[in-house]
Every structure is written in structure tokens, then in C-alpha cells.
Amino acid sequence: MPSLDAYTTPHFPALYWPISVLPGEPQYLYGVKDAWRFTLFWTLIVFEVCHLVASGYALVVQWRNWKMMLGAMMVYLALAGVEALMAGSVVGLLLGTIYKAGDFRMSTWIPFIWAVINVLVLILSSFSIQGGL
Predict the structure, then answer these.
(1) What's the Cα-to-Cα distance from 100 to each of 9, 93, 105, rounded to whole Å?
(2) Cis peptide upstream of residue 111 (ω within 30 degrees of 0)
């Protein structure tokens, strides 16, 4: 871990191209608060986009009732925010605590990847599977 004087939290999103990285280009997170914040932001973004696509498809399919479907779209986006707040907070705090306990540096890609994993779990759990999760 760098000294506390030298470390500054990278600006969000701080993603870098991981193939053939130049020295000094990768940015890392060291604190629990930083990991939580990045994970929460990415989870909010990914959940909102996913719910926007689903509600947009519903709007196109049910165009005759477009006023009602716009209301449904707003409800979808509000629920996505609540879901992302809960999922992003839990995962972000767990990630930050685990990395801090191991004294590891966390790439800024890790919160993004976990946000995508969160939304994939949400999509998978929406299907009725015999035997289920």
C-alpha cells in the first residue's frame, strides 16, 4: 500500500485498457470507502441501464398504452435504484473489507465486474427454473 500522503483516490470511473498497460497507467483502490463508492456507482449505472432496456422493450411492445407504460418505466427505474443501492452497498463493503484485510490493491475494474455479476444474478433469478436457485 502506498503511503497515506502519496495516495489519492482515482476519479470515477478510472478504467484503463488492461492489455499492454503502460507503467503508471493502472489505478487502484485501497480503502473500504473507495471500493464501496466505486461498486455502488457501477451497480447503479448497470442496473439502471438493464431496467431501462427491459422497460423500453415493454413500451415498444405495448405502444397502445404508452401513458401507462411510461409510468411503469418510471417504477422500473425507481426499483432499479433501490435494488442497486442494496446490492452495490453489500458487495462494495464486502469487497472493500476483504481487500483491506488482505492488504491487497484493488483494480478499478473489480467494482465494474461485480456490478455486471450483480445484474446477471438478477436476470438469472428472474427465470423460473425447476429446482431453482
Answers:
(1) 15, 10, 8
(2) no
| Distance, CA of 80 to CA of 120 (rounded, Å) | 13
Instruction: Identify the pLDDT of residue 104.
Output: 86
C-alpha cell recorded at residue 40 = 455502488
Contact 50, 125 (CB under 8 A): no
| Residue 119: partners with Cβ closer than 8 Å, 6 or more residues away | 43, 46, 47, 50
114: nearest Cα among 133, 95, 86: 95
Under DSSP, the state recorded for 21 is P
Mean pLDDT, each 10-residue run in order, the chain (133 residues): 66 76 72 90 94 89 86 91 94 92 86 94 80 55
Residues 87 and 67: their CA atoms lie apart, in Å, by 30
Sequence-distant (6+) residues with CB within 8 A of 107 are: 18, 26, 28, 29
Q: Which amino acid is at 53?
A: V
